[in-house]
Amino acid sequence: MDYGNMISDAFEYTREALVGKWVRWVLLTIVSIIPIVNFIFFGYVMEIYRGTKPAPELENWGTLFVDGLKLFIVMLIYAIPVLVILAIFGGISFLSMIASGNANADPTLIAGAIASLMGGILLALIVGLIIAIIAVIGTIRFTRTGSFGEAFNFSAILETIGSIGWVDYIISLVILFVVLAVVQFVLGLLMVIPVLGWIISFFITAAMVIFEARYMTLLYDSA
User: Fold this and answer.
1) Cα–Cα 20 to 30 A to 209, which of 40, 42, 95, 150?
2) By the 8 A CB rule, do 141 and 49 touch?
3) What is the pLDDT of residues 52-102, one digit of tens each?
């Protein structure tokens, strides 16, 4: 697999989608940061998942909103195991802290509460990582087929990953993670600058999501 070509393709795709098309960039940035309205942005991402090239126009907002809402539901369902784990361990930790307060702050109970919370977070991270590996393909399958069932057709999802090659697939995701981590680090530095830094960060974040969507689309199509 040509990882470098995937990176350059996704970068060029994002550049052509936004640079020089300032109205589109501004609108995408605005709709991406407003709750509920950002379903339109999710719908736009779905258009990228469908393999649309060059980048789609920001039009038919009603259709994009409905598509984005569907994508949000799929992502929410995938997130349920992580949310349940956090709720259970968070609840255990909370009850332990209450018990420690009633027992004159027993160090053992406090330590148990902290250990429970940390254990829950660690377990949630592990489960979340496993789910993310599956969800990447699942969300694109949903986008291509329009079927909620296909978003969770795990045998087909695993077959697709197998066609890509598990090693190539994991390496591709790691490369994407590193690229996004570097961008996030830069965004963190920009956020230190009041107002202007935040505005720039919002614009870069919108571009980063488009880059990520195109990269994952290329990964999916390599199967």
Assistant:
1) 150
2) no
3) 889 999 989 999 999 999 999 999 999 999 999 988 888 877 776 676 655
Residues present in the chain in total: 223
Largest pairwise CA distance in the chain: 65
Interatomic CA distance for residues 133 and 152, integer angstroms:
13
Q: Are 134 and 157 in contact (CB under 8 A)?
A: yes
Q: How many CB atoms lie within 10 A of CB 193?
A: 12
What b/e readout covers 1-35, taking b as 16+ CB neighbours within 10 angstroms? eeeeebbebbeebbeebbeeeeebbebbbebbeee
> How many domains does the chain divide into?
1
35-207-77-118 Cα dihedral, nearest 10 degrees: -90
Answer yes or no: are the C-beta atoms of 64 and 40 closer than 8 Å.
Answer: yes
Task: Look at residue 103 and tell me whether its pLDDT is greater than 60.
Answer: no
Distances in Å between the Cα of 137 and the Cα atoms of 7, 8, 10, 207, 215 are 18, 21, 17, 21, 12
